[in-house]
Structures
1.
Amino acid sequence: MNIGIESISFFTSRYVLDLRTMAKARGVDAEKYVNGIGQEKMSVPPPGEDVITLAANAGHQALESIDTDSIEMVMFATESATDQSKAGGIYVHNLLKLKPHCRVFELKQACYSGTAGLLLARDMIHQYPDRKVLILMSDIARYGLNSAGEITQGAGAIAMVISSQPKIMTIEPESGYYTEDVMDFWRPNYRDEALVDGKYSVRVYLKALTESWNLYHQRTHIGFEQFSRFCYHLPFSRMAEKAHKHLAKINHIDLSEHELATHINDGLVYNRNIGNIYTGSLYLSLISMLENNPQDMSNHKVSLFSYGSGCVGELFAGQVLPGYRNHLSSDLHQSLLESRKELTYPEYTDFYNFAYVQDGTTQSMPTFDTGCYRLSQIKNHKRIYETL
Ligand code: HMG
């Protein structure tokens, strides 16, 4: 039985900061951001946009051609949750009008948890082939103003329907994974911004990649050369170059510049222009690779490496299905990116500094473009959403 991705879409904020604008404001050479880090732009959420509205918009798009009554489970992966108790997926379940006989819950392990959801969904469908799972991965990446991590912020959500009638990619059952207790990136409950040991986090990422690959290879005997494309978790797009050179090196492969570009470049286009969307970053790269690759990828094998700080890594494989292009939302995604409003630097800091109430007084949100859904109010400590 084939199990995999039947439908996949992303949504990102309608507002964007060009990193050259940030470089000018910071007095930094823009080349550092564009070439050194590999990021051009970052999506910035306006007041009234949160992980719920981002996920609902992505979910709405991904469910366009799916019978919503077939969705038996919603997994909501995030590390920017709005509540310590209630799962964000329950708001989305309501906004998307899914049936009540549906299991909904939230997953957390930094940027990795969406992958845990995907692979668990795969196992569940193996047992119950007529059921479908909606996986939402939604995050707002937020670091301190003026910190080294600031230029790697971003905001967005991925929605995927996993079923036994995949149209885009099958997900192979075997994988290699690795866990180690490290403090490379974390966000204590009392903070809005992540803390990070940046250079160390890159080293831990590469170690988790090595360990995950070794287990994957040991279990499957599948080699580096059997993959046509490689998608990585992308905190910033140059991370893929570092990761891919590293993977080639541990496999004793002398990678040419042309091979490097072929293997990873199409998967960087969207991430370079959106930023880190944490849980969804790997899958944004997958969408980018499928939608920006001029070559027909049918029947090609793709390596997927997921990494979440703290840390967990997992490497697994997917096989692209013939006819996949007919099921992508390329035009929608391109127009979503092209129609974003560019922010000035003061507009960016205004969005960044917007304060949500924390004391139970009623706060009505100013109106910005947040797609089909918005957080309209916080009242008596309750978040109130509306469909537009
Ligand atoms: P930094 O100190 O700003 O940058 O930190 P740098 O000084 O290391 O420079 C970066 C690169 O730009 C270097 O190239 C420089 O040479 C180059 P490299 O040595 O890497 O090849 N450079 C220039 N290039 C051209 N022209 C110039 C120029 N100047 C310098 N003028 C860092 C960078 C990524 C560490 C920082 O942005 C950061 O802390 N980011 C956040 C943490 C992060 O993204 N870590 C990645 C791995 S952990 C992860 O992926 C998990 C995560 O997604 C969270 C989760 O799991 O939930 C983050």
2.
Amino acid sequence: MQRKPDNGSIIDAVIVGAGFAGLYMLYRLRRLGLTARVFEAGGGVGGTWYWNRYPGARCDIVSMEYSYQFSAELQQEWEWTERYASQPEILEYLNHVADRFGLRDGLQFNTRVTAAVYDDRTGLWNIHTDRDDHVTARFCIMATGCLSSANLPPFPGLESFGGTYYHTAAWPHDGVDFTGRRTGVIGTGSSGVQCIPLIAKQASHLHVFQRTPTYVVPAHNRPLEAAEQERIKADYDAFRQHNSLEPGGADFRTNYGSVFDVTPEERERIYEERWQSGGLPFMGAFGDLMFDPAANRTAQEFIRNKIRSIVKDPDTAEKLCPYQMFACKRLCVGTNYYETYNRDNVTLVDISNAPIETITEKGLRSGGREYELDSIVFATGFDAMTGALMRIDIRGADDVALKDKWAAGPRNYLGLMTAGFPNLFTITGPGSPSVLSNMVPSIEYHVEWIATFIEYALGHGYEYLEPALEAEDKWVDHVNEVADMTLFPQCNSWYLGANVPGKPRVFMPYFGYPQYAEVCNNVATGGYEGFIMQPAPAGE
Ligand code: NA7
């Protein structure tokens, strides 16, 4: 059913989401002289950084890289205080960006987009919200984020729980005090790894319920020295340019040589050096780590040995040892993570063979035993990459639902547009480097690409943009071929949708930021090959 727009006028674009992507998209469209409105479910800017306020929440990409580069002035004037920015600091940064670039009047908070419906007659999108907004726009741009739809598995009995419970991705704004509380954390991905050491310091006892152990490398977070910051700022462009050529678009100091080019002693030395310097660049130690299982096993063994050397109780250490491919689930970056299991008030419960049967009034039951808890923290992750899109009733040409088109997994061209949904863009959607890259440069790349495409199209009298089905099919095949060359698809990760029961098992991100950017640059400079561009439908 068609509904009338609230004010009868047509705007150029609706943007869904006010995180890094939505804010910058608004800025770029305004610079083109276009009208745009941003709807955001949260009560402020920030996207995933608005919601994920759990103790210890911080980015695992260093702050000098996890930041916008579109404005040289912004880059120069903003001072990060730590090597890895905490959630509050990132939120402060995004609020500063919203103010500095005068974006606030384009943002509408506490408003969830419920439906986006394309009108074949007019070539316009009708966007509806839970606050009864009905807006008509030429373009609909999904800046909905990759990790924004929280995954709370349907544990039976949750409603009977007599204590308090929280999801890491919907954390109370005034914080939670676990002092004196018997607490359980379910989940040991990045969120669990970050919050467990801090909750352990407060709780009277902490039970960690672990289904799959993950590889955790130390962050070695520290204050960011002024000299270090100044050195980068002296030639920020060169720093950014260098990083954009890395596979993940971030400075992993990638060594493209093989694990087997060096002696076992040299390999150990290199791993140790990476372990001591900390963070995700551990993945850059050798070029074949994510391609050759034998190479990968050497990193696995190094980390398992580290766990055994840190964790005093051999039984607990063994339970913490992962055996899946290293980093094929997102590598976690922690602070005192393994050390926390040496505390007397922390117990690791291996639920790999004894899933949580039910939440009870007093706690939860697993393996036939009841654990009494005052608080439960669900660190159970996200319906990643597609979850936020699927929550919106998106209908394209001929009233086809995106849910139906993507029932067997997402399909699109360049991760940017999907056939049958004209003028609908996704920023860092599946089929693009997104979560396998430094998100902020990937977002900026997409925003600039989309803005340039829209400018080009409107300049040529085209108001109808859609990828050709053939181009889309080829791109989907290519994304899969590239993924299959790597070890990433080889374990149950959220990259594959494996963490959400019933979700189709498809590897969603594209591996290789520089290669991806090259393809997209060529498509643009070649006159947008693979896209259908036409004048707007005549309408009524
Ligand atoms: P993740 O990485 O998806 O981790 C979720 C954790 O929750 C993981 O250990 C899961 O075990 C566990 N989980 C999920 N469902 C269940 C059930 N039903 N029972 C027990 N345990 C469960 O999410 P995060 O929030 O930690 O991190 C997401 C990304 O945010 C991260 O990768 C960074 O990019 C930032 P599993 O491994 O599936 O066996």
3.
Amino acid sequence: MSRRLWTRSILVLAVIIMTSCLADAEAGSFIKVPKKKYKGPGTTANLKSIIIGRCYHYMSLYPAIGMKDCSRIWQELTEAVFRKDPCNITEEDYKKLGEVAAQTIPCDKSLLWSRTNQLVHRYTKATEDFMTLEDTFLGFLFNGLTWCGKPVTPGMNYNSCPAWNECSNNSLLSFWKIASAMFAQTSCGIVNVMLNGSADGAIARKESILRTVEIPRMNPDKVSEVRLWVIDDIHGQDKNSCNSESLLELQQYIEEHNLNYSCIDNYKPVQALQCVENPDHHACNQCSRP
Ligand code: APR
């Protein structure tokens, strides 16, 4: 091999080695670990301020609850989820948070619900005779908010969080499960449940919190009766009522948990609220009522 050819070969080899080294260096410094993207929205902006603000607001609305340590509540939330995998948060992780936010629920005041999220809360706002989970201290603090951690800085994921059913131990589902369990467990006397008589399918989904968490956690020694209210949408159809198959099945499920059962179709006080909102509807005309 001539000297010139030899030098050229060495040069080509050097260029190849350098290019490959540069590529490696680039890979090391520029290729980013792909971010995990969950299906739900990320942690609510200003979460801490919202929770602490709601905490003081609740105490001013309901002084009977006594003094709660609002900073501690925030601290217990972060202990539960901060820097953690949001698909690996259990009900146990929220146990301390549940303890610091504990509240006594007066007997006969609990109002559970399934598939009536909007109506039930319009109703409790209007009457204040009953309390849903979202009207309790713990539910009020977190209702409508999203939060989840991530193992790297800043410790909370503001881009995305697991959606309701994305993984079984996700930070939101586990929280609402333990909050619902505590609410049902501390309920006493008559426990009312608002259901949707106009919705398609089962009156309460098999996987609903009502069936899977709340009914099993009620204490038959403290709960005298589970009273179902089957409410039809004022503009909707009457798809389910107390004697429908779906209701009879739910009755059986409630009784299997040693709880007494009763059922009311279109409970009048709720119908009255629907009529306030729809005064011209024919169902609201006293004269046309049977
Ligand atoms: N995807 C997204 N969100 C869901 C899903 C889902 N698959 N399932 C439930 N949710 C959320 C929604 O925010 C919905 O409004 O839970 C809410 C209630 O679902 P429902 O089937 O209407 O009712 P249920 O599961 O029985 O939960 C209501 O639990 O929160 C407690 O005390 C409360 O008694 C009430 C019960």
4.
Amino acid sequence: MKKFTCVEDIGDLRAAVAEALEIKRDRFAYSELGRNRTLLMIFFNSSLRTRLSTQKAAMNLGMNVMVLDVNQGAWKLETERGVVMDGDKAEHLLEAIPVMASYCDLIGVRSFAQLKDKAEDYEERVIEQFIRYSGRPVFSMEAATRHPLQSFADLITIEEHKTTERPKIVMTWAPHPKALPQAVPNSFAEWINATDYEFVITHPEGYELDPKFVGRAKVEYDQRKAFEGADFIYAKNWSAYADPNYGQVISTDRDWTVDSEKMALTNNAYFMHCLPVRRNMIVTDEVIESERSLVIPEAANREISAEVVIKRLLESLK
Ligand code: CP
């Protein structure tokens, strides 16, 4: 594997999950693989889980790790070619990328959607430049349109907890006060569509995702109807994708908050969310604290998904 930005890059999902479960049984089994290798993690945006779990995964593999927060202590980076750099951005990505690459063997990048220009976001301009100009294996730590390390961890978590071969998975939009990217729901949909699980997406009208990611999923605008018989409820907020409202909050309807009354409609479903989560906006205290909440094991599996991905990228260097 030379890069990791989407579900296609991981190949066979059953093999990937089996490898993840093997690593989970002994996460230090490959501690020699990364000896004298360096991972550079570059953050254009904040993180708790991705930062810690990815660093831990790399350390499990014996790597050295460097972390750069672009907006805290580094030169502000210009990402567009052709710009007259007379503003506050002192360095261009086209110099910064090869310089950073000269200090490391692998690069992880977090660069969220700006939510101003759909075409720009969906072209993935920042991470694509790292892939093109670094000469190093690059992996996404959440890019503009996908968060594959999260989705892989979500899939591992579902595999660990499912009690039927084809569980019903429901991804539900839930309210949030700020405009969030579509990366997590896009990516979750992409990964679940690559399985044979039953898959339903529910959201208010106007929150339709890019059809490329919706794929074979059934879209149900009645949240309560969608929840009926569900085995897993995956909650997430996202901003509007459809024009003319791209990147905007068009509803904060608290009737979409996941609560115990709605969870009672399910097949005793597990509750999932990638975190961070706004309690009593996305989900009630009662649901997230219930014994069916998987948010902590799901976050813990971020270490495992990252370890599989970094292991495979290291193997490509040999
Ligand atoms: N789920 C997730 O990616 O969390 P962070 O934004 O804290 O890394």
